[in-house]
Structure of Orotidine 5'-phosphate decarboxylase:
Amino acid sequence: MTSAPIAVALDAPDLETAARWAALVTPHVSTVKVGLELYLRYGPDVIASVRGASGVQIFLDLKLHDIPNTVAGAAKAVARLKPHILTVHAAGGRTMIRAAVDALPNTVIAAVTALTSLSEADLERMGVRGPARDAVRRLAVEAVDAGAQALVCSPREVAAVRAEVGPGITLITPGVRPAGSDTQDQARVATPEQAIADGADLLVIGRPITGSADPGAAAAGIAAALRRVLSG
Ligand SMILES: O=c1ccn([C@@H]2O[C@H](COP(=O)(O)O)[C@@H](O)[C@H]2O)c(=O)[nH]1
């Protein structure tokens, strides 16, 4: 059975917990995601701990956002970890995104458009005019023009972004919540089934899996639901 297009966000307080979650979910999912909490606490060693012997893909979610020279240096600094995906903020601009792409030719550079924790009202207060979808589309086009091979957006925008950038770009959606579950600090959300039906390639899911009593079973359940959508 092929693993489901899910990146489990290993936002754990310690390395042992992250490695345990990774071991439980890797039979069911394609990818595990290491973010700022783990990386800043443990540094590069965390990657070997969560990768284990499974061959699971590593998504390094550092959301780099700085001047191009600094981002290029930061990207080169993680090259030896061989992440499958590395994130940068699309708002860093074309030259910054290009610098990351050039620095890491063997990694998929994913540009984060508008954080899924931001509501329409938050974005308006920040000076973003019009619906979130339009801002996300503008950032997506800029990022793809700069060479980004993947985009991070909310599942609510994924269909519009797909229509804008076409089939060749990997669309990654956090802000995924199974029906009826707590949205927590996420604002622009949809269910796993809706995200996949609307064209997402990879779903980032953290607490709905890692906060469950049995993360392996939770991952297996969502993976089965996605397979039903993909085969139906
Ligand atoms: O716009 C974004 C970009 C990244 N994230 C990250 O995804 C996970 C989501 O975790 P949940 O527990 O499923 O909410 C988390 O690691 C974020 O840093 C995002 O949520 N939104």
The beta strands are 4-9, 29-34, 57-64, 85-89, 108-112, 150-152, 170-173, 202-205. The mean pLDDT is 97. The first strand starts at residue 4 and ends at 9.
